[in-house]
């Protein structure tokens, strides 16, 4: 049996419609402070991207643009790591609540982590 991610895709990214519903991820209540922090970070990232667009339009120094792109990349990675941790915690809690083996969820998490990294 192929290991599927939460979007119903296997490790190669192919969608398997039959199995998507069988392993549908049910997000648990998220910590409001964490979610507020993530939304704040995403809004800052959005502002940084708009700033880089303006820098390109204004023909600013390429080195300055690259520095800003590096900052955006780091900010996206911080948000991603937090979301990965949240996803893993949700999967483990769901598995425990439903009496499922955590091993399959860990395999799914590893596949998602590989896509992120």
TrEMBL record:
CDD domains: CsoR-like_DUF156
GO MF terms, alphabetically ordered: DNA binding; metal ion binding
Basic and acidic residues biased stretches: 8-30
Residue numbers spanned by region Disordered: 1-30
GO biological process: negative regulation of DNA-templated transcription
Keywords: DNA-binding
Pfam families membership: Trns_repr_metal
InterPro entries: Metal_Tscrpt_repr, Metal_Tscrpt_repr_sf
Domain of life the protein comes from: Bacteria
PANTHER family listed in its UniProt record: TRANSCRIPTIONAL REPRESSOR FRMR, TRANSCRIPTIONAL REPRESSOR FRMR-RELATED
Descriptive protein name: DNA-binding transcriptional regulator, FrmR family
């Amino acid at each position: 049996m192929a290991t599927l991610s939460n979007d119903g895709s296997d490790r190669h990214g192919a969608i398997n419609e039959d199995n998507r519903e069988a392993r549908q991820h049910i997000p648990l209540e998220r910590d409001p402070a964490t979610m507020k922090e993530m939304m704040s970070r995403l809004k800052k990232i959005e502002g940084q991207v708009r700033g880089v667009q303006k820098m390109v339009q204004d023909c600013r120094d390429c080195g300055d643009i690259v520095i800003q792109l590096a900052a955006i990349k780091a900010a996206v990675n911080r948000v991603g790591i937090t979301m990965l941790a949240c996803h893993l915690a949700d999967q483990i809690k769901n598995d425990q609540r439903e009496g499922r083996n955590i091993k399959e969820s860990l395999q799914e998490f590893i596949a998602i982590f590989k896509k992120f990294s």
